[in-house]
Amino acid sequence: MTHPSRFKLRCRRGMKELDFVLDRYLARHFAHADAAEIQRFDELLDLQDPQLFGILFETEATPARFADLAAKIRQV
After folding, report:
1. What is the average pLDDT across 45-54?
2. For the chain, which domains are there?
């Protein structure tokens, strides 16, 4: 299921910083994302908050499979 409201709920995290950047990505890019990007975003949201924060705010190494998506999320 790729309905935006499903992802909106999954973007509600335990950290305001994550909520902010993930919500901006949803608002600006999700509607135009292809199936592969949506799949990667879904996998990214499966990560625990500390690891997700580290990837998106570059305090830890970004796994190669998330590199393009993480860069896109950081730009918003």
Report:
1. 96
2. 4-75 (1.10.150.250)
